[in-house]
């Protein structure tokens, strides 16, 4: 599966309805996966890039707990929450993206070499098997990430995840689509989501913005305990269920769609 066939396009098999035990047609079961903190343990690269942005602009680097706020929500809004005006938040976002997308940090696997911030980290244990099991159970599996698609594809490609999902949906670099509710709405539209035809969909993610974004689109969200949420965050925002590990998610999805 290539970037050209998955970015902003209907998922492979998106028009193929499942069938009931007696051979009748029923709608699709669509699972929309967040990326950072759900598929990819991306904190090392995100936080290194955020630290660089604060330092480049001459700001004190926040403590670890405060930096954790950058994982999930739109970058420019999170920078602004640290007292930056709109222009400065834009500068910080640009500084972040320069090192996130270009070789800037020591490569832990190749001494003396540099690596892009986005390639630091790795796939959570069990995530690839989780995606495979969801698809084996008849689900259409796509991503819905607030990370710009231009940033998401290199990450998913590098870690071998792009071929495993049916489509990749994300934000835009120009911020015309940068909030989670917008990304989810865009994905549903691209998929031709049709509840009247029996389609059902659920968001899966590790932060409050995943739960809130799903609700804004009339969907529920299953939370991921293995990601970056603070204690009680997912429950407080109304996650319909919380999977403790990637291996638990297929059963949680089955229970939701039952």
Automatic annotation (TrEMBL):
One of its GO terms (cellular component) is cytosol. Residues 1-20 are annotated as: Disordered. GO terms for molecular function: protein tyrosine kinase activity. InterPro entries: HAD-like_hydrolase_sf, HAD-like_sf, HAD_sf, PGP-like_dom2. It comes from the Bacteria. Pfam families: Hydrolase. Residues 8-20 have a biased composition (Low complexity). PANTHER family: 5'-NUCLEOTIDASE, PHOSPHOGLYCOLATE PHOSPHATASE. This is Haloacid dehalogenase. It comes from Bifidobacterium samirii.
